[in-house]
Protein: 3-keto-5-aminohexanoate cleavage protein
Amino acid sequence: MFTERKVVITCAVTGATHTPTMSDHLPITPEQIAEQAIGAADAGAAIIHFHARNPIDGRPTPDPQVYAPAIEKVRRESDVVINITTSGGPNATVEDRIAAALKFKPELASLNMGSLSPYGRQRIVGKFDQWKHAWERELFLAAPSRVYPNTEEIITRTIQEVGAAGTRFECECYDVGHLYNVAYFAEIGLLKPPFIIQTVFGFSGGIGIDADNMTHMRNIADRLFGSEYRWSVLAPGKHQLRLCTMGATMGSNVRVGMEDSLYLEKGRLAHSNAEQVARIRDILKLLSVDIATPDEARHILGLKGREHTSA
Structure:
């Protein structure tokens, strides 16, 4: 059903899953990340979701000093909402994972609501004859034994420490049980409404991609949170635009970007994150869906405002 409201577009500009060999257009350095973030904001994104990478080899890093140049440039040149990840690799400590969010005190931070183990990612190795960096191949070969932990202790510490500065949490829900985890943390008073729920479809180890799963996740969220949540949808690869469009027509906000897909359309790599934002913006406008500005997104999501951040 179409609703009389505005859709918030988030752009996740680089992430930690894709690697430099997969696309020459994936932003790696702080300068590239900032440039693409600003371009995405100009194209219609109200929120930019940040990860950082080692500028030498593209390896994901939690180091706040690597985040700093990109975040500071985006803050100077755009009014976009800054959203910093609190996820991390299998061996990342809680201190590593929350370091950037503690330093910059952003309006929004992502929060994975349950542990995940990837399945089948080692098969990516066979798709490339050569890798730009040895760590890329090693990353995928190690996938069958890898777990990304998001235990009650990790989530609790993240909420308590990052949330102390008024940062709100975008709760990443990769499966139905993760919605119930949000409800648990709300019940014990750690998460406050309106809850920001991002349902994630099609990532290995999580719920699959089809219309029934989207409807099911929405129905469970309605049952658990009533009118006290704001919904967003993301999906990987070729499913990105289709699932985002479907979600938007059902009342969701949307996320696009090279963290989730390197492609603009079948067989064509995106040259920038701005291209993906412009594409979903144009689709939504054709469907008579209005796009939220950064300040409108702040109001919709109940954010503290950029003046209360340290970016």
Summary: Residues 165 and 205 are 32 Å apart (CA to CA). The domain at 6-308 is CATH 3.20.20.70 (TIM Barrel). The chain has a mean pLDDT of 96.
